Known about the structure:
By secondary structure, this protein is of the alpha/beta class. The chain has 15 helices and eight strands. Strands 1-2-3-4-5 form a five-stranded mixed β-sheet.
Amino acid sequence: MKLSFNGSLVFATFLAAVFGSWLAVLAPPINLAWTAWFAYVPMLMLLRKDSIKATAWLSFVYGFFGNFFIFLWMIDTMTVFSSLAWGYALGILILYVAVLAFPFVLLFLSVHFFRKRIGGLWVFLFPALQVGLEYLSTFLFIFPYQHGVSQFQVPYVFQLVSLTGIWGLSFLILLVNAVIAEFFFRRLEGRSMTMKPLLLVSLLFCANYIYGYWQFNRIEESLNRTTPTRVLQLQNDINAYQWKARMGDRKAIFAADRYWVNETQKHLSKDIDLVVWPESSVSQYMTHQQLQNKFGYLSRQGEFELVLGGKFRKKNNDDLVKHNSAFMLNKSGHVQSRYDKMHLVPVSEYLPFKEYLPDSVTSIKMDSGHFQPGKNAVISSGETAKLAFPICYEAIFQSTFRRFLDADLMLNITNDIWFSD
């Protein structure tokens, strides 16, 4: 049976695209986190309980446009940091967000399926299904997204993650949305709704907020009783396009290294324990000895530990293995440890299934580098603390991050130019 695009469905498709696009408003840089507690209600009300095909289509549109605007930055990243043409980058993004849309199809198809069979209890199964899909996405997708992340700038709400991981917060957000939607469903059906579900989610929200307030302030009090670690964190003052132009000029590359040195030297008179430069701050491949010779004097002069991002390569039999790495120089100016990024970004840092791709694809130039993944989670016992420095993209993978849990201080070094702003 063919899906018929009548006027009503065309308008519903437009609304699904608008509602889906709002997902990007929940995410950085806009990050209207408070709207997450009701942002899914309009889409839930748009679903067609009398047509599985129409519901599936609207759900796909919702997921497609939501993910398209969330991950729109990928086009710039792919074109700036590789030789990939803009059109190809757009095509890759469209294919990727089309795949990401299918979990939304499954999620929204469950709504009236559950309502028909278990009534009001669907409000609990709906968020449970979403949590299950989010968990699976961490293994299946390049950039998994969890709805609970929208609350990362609301500290009292976000403390729930310390108990349940991000999944508990995603569940609570979707539960609140489902209960609000059920209230409107019943109004439209001419049925009354008991206040118990609304009271329950209100109590859960308040309980979470009270716990978050207590947990946040307990940690703050504990930190106030400890000796503070003074950290100088530096970041780029250029965007991705300026960086791209700089990489074609050898003199500019050395000037970039000089930028980090100059910015650090401005603060040598201050009592600093640790200096952190971003991922790929040193753009040339360097050995440990070369790093010590070039930057070790900074650590000695300032008597601080220095963590910086760079590139490392080594011979492995007849192959030259390249890594995206982070290095820690101790206060004596020696490289104490090196960590090689384990979870690389596809297309930007390596080509997936390279051995099966034609030469026209494998010859794509990558400014980030054709890297190999590291194998070990490195924790460095510095004078400041036991340090771990996972790199950028790895922060969104819990299984990767948990390998560093023995560290006292977690430094996720990233470079703001990846986002082209």
